[in-house]
Amino acid sequence: MKAPPKAYATRAEKTQDFGIGFLGWFVGNAALWCFQSTLLPLMFLPISLLSRSGDQNEVAAIFGIGLSLLCGILVLAANIGVPIFFLIRRRWIGLGMLGAIAVSLLLILLLTAACFVLYQGQAAPRPP
Fold it and tell me: How far apart are CA 68 and CA 74, in angstroms?
């Protein structure tokens, strides 16, 4: 039997859940990034340490690339699936996660635009 979505009684509950979703998205992605950048290389380290021939080095490289690709796909699936799950179950947590994604994309867009503006001034020397 499916449990019904949470019914919010006050605005404070909505605000609290929105904040949990907003901050939780950043904390969750920071934890995933830490896992990928620290623990993931250690998973295929024994293969590369034990290998002596070129074939085993290629196997270690292919294993590492495949594992990295798999982790990237899982992170993408989590960043799509978890907000959808919370939009169904606890709407304001899901909206907080979508808000965090929107803020992140906006910051990326602004930083990219700033880099283009700064680079354009240095692209060609100005005539005297």
Answer: 10
**Residues in the chain, total:** 128
Domain spans in the chain, listed from the N-terminal domain onward: 12-122
Closest CA to 62 of 77, 47, 42: 47
64-104 confidence digits (pLDDT tens): 777 778 888 999 999 999 999 999 999 999 999 999 999 99
Q: Report d(CA 84, CA 128) in Å as an integer.
A: 57
Residue written as tokens 């495949």?
A: 66
pLDDT in tens, 20-45: 999 999 999 999 888 888 877 776 66
